[in-house]
Amino acid sequence: MAPDYLVDAGNTSCKVVATQAGALGTILRYDSTSFPKELTRPGLWVVLAGSNLEILDQWQIQINNCGSKGQILTRDTVPIRKAMDDPSTVGVDRLLACLGAQSLHGKGPHLVVDSGTAITANLIGQDGHFCGGAIGPGFGLMNRALAEKTSALFEVEMNQSIAQFPASTTRDAIRLGVHMAAIGFVRQAWEWASEKYPGCPLHLTGRDAPLLHPNFPRAMLNEQLLFHGMLATIHLPKITP
User: Fold this and answer.
1) Which of 222, 240, 220, 201 is nearest to 96 (CA)?
2) How many independent structural domains does the chain possess?
3) DSSP state of 98
4) Of 93, 114, 127, 208, which residue is the catalytic one?
5) Is the pLDDT of residue 119 over 60?
6) Are 94 and 213 contained in the same domain?
7) At what angle do helices 139-149 and 170-196 cross, to 10 degrees?
8) Is residue 93 annotated as part of the catalytic site, yes or no?
9) What pLDDT digit, counting tens, does each position of 18-72 carry?
10) Residue 151 is part of a domain; what is its CATH number?
11) Measuring CA to CA, how many Å separate 81 from each of 85, 97, 126, 206?
12) Residue 217: which region, alpha, beta or left (left: phi > 0; alpha: psi -120 to 50)?
């Protein structure tokens, strides 16, 4: 049995996906203050996860008040072993995206890059253990920081068409600089992952993954890895750490 809806409560938006016969529907994005009407029907099973704990709690209460079951997944419920010095603070979204890659492509190794509010590079070892990774600012965060912390710069629209270097306008220079920072982050992470595990595949997921994919054509692009990880968490037995 599969849940009716999966919810990823992020720092920028909440993503909602319907399931039907175990298949995932289209990702619908909502402002965290706008409770989706799809979740107001009674009798639903809604599974939630994500980094925005306040919204998770609020949405779970609203779902239960509508006569449905709201179930929150935590890091301890994700059936993936962790090979880290301190796994107590790792985000459940990172674990779920990695489990999604495993459920679709096998135990490991894998490098999973999730590009949203933050860009995270997450390494799964040959033995299937989550090894940790790196966390950096995402496209929007870098873009917004330049506009907020400087007097002459401004936010720009990001797209997959990267300006040529040297950029001939300030707008293109901002877009190019943000792209360069994100591309360099991913390239370095993949280089280090490949040194440790030759041939390690790269997976790109998250809202801004399509912005990165043209620069990494050999990478696998799947914006729904986290949701595949949620389904796997529900259907796989819990493991002993």
Assistant:
1) 222
2) 2
3) H
4) 93
5) yes
6) yes
7) 140
8) yes
9) 998 879 999 999 998 889 999 999 999 999 999 899 999 999 999 999 999 999 9
10) 3.30.420.40
11) 13, 14, 12, 22
12) alpha
